[in-house]
Amino acid sequence: MAPRHARSRRRHRLISRALTGLLTLVVCAGIVVFLTTSHAYISTPSMYPTIPPGSMVFIEPQRTYHVGEVIEFKGNGLLWVHRLVKIEHNGDLVTKGDNPQSTPDIFVPPRTMRDVVGSVVASVPYLGFPELIAHDPSYGLSWLRAELGLTGKLVVLALVAVICALLVTRKRRQADAADMPGGSVRPHEPHGSNPRKETPVTRPQPLEAVHPLRGRKYPCQP
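Predicted structure:
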């Protein structure tokens, strides 16, 4: 039984280290992306299904912009991510979301090239949900549930269950180690078994006696 439990402990340790390393990598990558790139998160379904809510888009300024590009621009004190559908002769821009229910945007005064921040060079689904949830928790969580669907929810629940099981196993091992003298980990005992307590065996020490005639001490074996 001992080798089997040892293998189980090693497997749990490897899984725990792998999940910890993956989580650390994701957090570090998120910090690098947040600090070194020009990005924005999508909070409305106006670009659905091309860019669903909760996506993160990466913006790069361009020398020129063409019809058909998805651009980020300023309007009414906000930043918009819509598709450029037309450039008027006077330079006014006509933009519209990809959602079939969207209509062309109307700005007063109309938007021009001076209002364009850059074009969308990449979009990553779900990556913008942390910022969206932090800005508006109820709205962000509702869209997250909608975007995940049944399969995504099951995957998330499975990952949470695995992480919780690993944490419980780790705390149990730490508690067992704290109960043992010297901080050693107590080997796992099969369920229902009574571990045998070993009694230390002490050998009697030789007694010293004085010889009645010579007055010398010599050991007396019991």
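Summary: Residues 136-184 form one domain.
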